[in-house]
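thought: fold this chain, then report.
action: predict
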Amino acid sequence: MLVLVNCWSTPPVDTAFTASDGVASTSVGDPRRAVRRGSSEQQGVSTNVIDVATKDCTALSDAELAEMADLCTDGVSGYEVGFLSKQREEWVLVTHAREEDKLRGFAFSTLERIGGTPSLLLGVASFTRTGSAESALKAVMRDLYRRAVLAFPDEDVLVGTRMEDPAAFRAYAGLTEVVPRPGHKPSGEERAWGRRLAKRFGCDGQLDDRALVLTGDGVAPGLLDYAPRKAAEPESDVAGLFEAVDRDRRDCLVVFGWAMAEDLLAGNLPR
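observation:
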């Protein structure tokens, strides 16, 4: 059972809400600079480096979709406007990260309960391949974690997405019990979570639940597209997780981990 959660307020458990009641902007910087929601500044912080804005997907304009598609032309995903337009119907929230008004990254996401478990799902995300990539990634993830703690106070949150490149594991810095991970054989429950997420991502029946690999069909799947040109070389054991991924076939990994309640509350994520 999927229960969508209003990320702006503190909802009672197992209660459904509308996706959002507005747009909020944040920036990377001092978390003490928070203002009342609904003001002209809205909740946020600022260092004038990466500005992050999140809103309901239904408010996404055609011009913004074109801007997002332009960003993707330089990435491995190559998402076009038509594909991105469909994501407005698949996901609840869209987050943009900008540096001096230039789009550096975006993410379609949702906060929901899967079988009662608080979950933050990244459906489709893409980031610049320039030197601003990691800052944009961290800014987007920090904003999503901030919303997760508002939606699910005092609860651990499962974070799930799909990845095609080892560099994308940077998004999970600070998470606990990430699956798959080097040297770890997924348990029966973890394999079950892989199947649940594959079904939620619309890929039911395509998952090898032992390797957590989704078999592709030659078409770019929705995933977390993060592969900066100057990214640090991933550790060999992390890269090894992708050995079974056939990039020509557009396979990808289903990856999930846990954001612990204490880390969310303290604002320690991402690390």
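thought: worth noting. The two ends are 31 Å apart (CA to CA).
final: tokens above.
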